[in-house]
Write a structure and sequence with these properties.
The protein has 349 residues and is α/β, with parallel strands linked by helices. The protein folds into 3 domains: 158 residues, Rossmann fold (3-Layer(aba) Sandwich), CATH 3.40.50.300; 82 residues, Helicase, Ruva Protein, domain 3 (Orthogonal Bundle), CATH 1.10.8; 72 residues, Orthogonal Bundle (Arc Repressor Mutant, subunit A), CATH 1.10.10. The protein is built from 14 helices and 8 strands. A 5-stranded parallel β-sheet has the order 2-3-4-1-5, with helices on both faces. A 3-stranded antiparallel β-sheet has the order 6-8-7. Helix 8 packs across helix 10. The longest helix has 21 residues. 34% of the residues are buried. The structure holds adenosine-5'-triphosphate and magnesium ion (MG).
């Protein structure tokens, strides 16, 4: 339940509409991606093996919302069972199977080992058509990730929708897993200003008192959110709370600014939580010295590891980790004004 301030002025008509977990009836601005995913999954409606999908793109690009909305539609219109698994919360093959068994109400599967669970699942779904969304698939360790995908894509009437920020996580899979999974890779680009405005207008229309905001205010939020729908919606929600707390009738731009700052801080810590200690250390080092050159960062990182008695990652992994920081939008990289492939890193403010 959401805590409300006990003021006379109410701006949030329905706070749940502005929650991250709220799945709107309509997913705006993702027509192409939705069509592509539906085309891939369509064979399953006729009991044939569908094409698996790999959705990737920056945080807040609507990947989870799109996957969940397609799941809901398939369930409603074609009677296909949808199972949603968050691999951050369930990072092992064992826990993924546990989750699937629970969703499908497979009785007595709890006590079984992984291989027995798989056998039971195969028997159970022999007549069922299922779509499994594996969200945050890059959060399970590589060995488990390979095992999850290898085993699940073997099931004949199961379509897999893998979701994560990165397509590197796909390239890093074992060859036998990649060829078995063979997914259509579907990219979710960042939203444009106009798209974010439409998403915000839809939420505001259902969640806020009409007189509490203007078109211009939504445009300000859309501009600040920089392509990220999560930041946009959180900023609007927090701004509405701040305005209510100040007992104002309308949300003002000062509320938006404060709300955006805190949404941005939450985003950073959320992204960093998803990464390893080594990513976090690299981020901290970059934060301390804007424009640090990649070679200097590598030396500084090794020095920090020696000081703390931590085993450093290999140089190849180091480069992947830096790419990951850039990919999720925590760090920006530009080519240094010296020869070669040297890059300069700075944190994104
Ligand atoms: N096209 C859209 N229409 C309506 N709401 C959207 C749309 N895209 C995203 N949202 C909303 O924005 C928020 C963030 O979207 P979502 O969780 O799908 O992002 P994501 O791409 O999965 O991000 P991450 O990579 O961090 O998991 C959610 O509350 C979602 O409902
Ligand atoms: Mg997501």
């Amino acid at each position: 339940m959401t805590m409300r301030w006990h003021n006379e002025r109410i701006i949030l008509l329905d706070p749940d509409i502005l929650l991250e977990t709220h799945l709107p009836q309509e997913i705006n601005a993702r027509v192409d991606q939705i069509k592509e995913i539906e085309d891939c999954l369509r064979p399953i409606t006729e009991g044939r093996k569908p094409v698996n999908c790999w959705l990737h793109g920056r945080p807040g690009a609507g990947k989870t919302a799109t996957a969940r909305s397609i799941m809901r539609k398939l369930e409603k219109e074609a009677g296909i069972r949808g199972v949603y698994v968050n691999c951050w919360e369930n990072p092992t093959i064992f826990s993924v199977l546990e989750c699937v068994a629970k969703e499908l109400r497979m009785l007595g599967a709890e006590k079984l080992s992984t291989s027995f669970k798989l056998e039971r699942l195969k028997r159970h779904i022999s007549k069922e058509r299922i779509v499994i969304v594996l969200d945050e698939i890059d959060q399970s360790p590589p060995k488990e990730r390979n095992a999850i995908l290898y085993n699940l894509c073997d099931l004949p009437t199961v379509g897999l929708v893998c979701v994560c920020n990165s397509q590197y996580a796909y390239f890093g899979l074992e060859e036998r897993v990649k060829s078995r999974l063979n997914p259509a890779r579907i990219f979710f680009e960042e939203y444009t200003f106009k798209e974010l405005f439409t998403i915000l207008a839809q939420r505001a229309q259902h969640g806020l008192i009409p007189d509490a905001y203007t078109k211009q205010l939504l445009q300000t939020v859309a501009g600040l959110a920089n392509g990220d729908a999560r930041i946009a919606i959180q900023t609007l929600k927090n701004a509405a709370y701040l305005a209510e707390r100040d007992n104002h009738e309308k949300i003002r731009s000062c509320h938006v600014k404060r709300a955006w700052n805190s949404a941005n801080d939450v985003k950073k810590s959320y992204l960093l939580r998803k990464l390893t200690d080594h990513h976090r250390l690299l981020y901290e080092l970059i934060a301390k010295k804007a424009g640090i050159l990649s070679g200097d960062l590598w030396r500084l990182y090794q020095k920090m590891c020696r000081t703390t008695g931590t085993k450093p990652i290999a140089v190849r992994t180091y480069s992947d980790y830096c790419n990951k920081l850039v990919e999720v939008g925590l760090v920006q990289a530009k080519r240094a004004a010296i020869q070669g492939k040297v890059r300069e890193f700075s944190v994104v403010q």
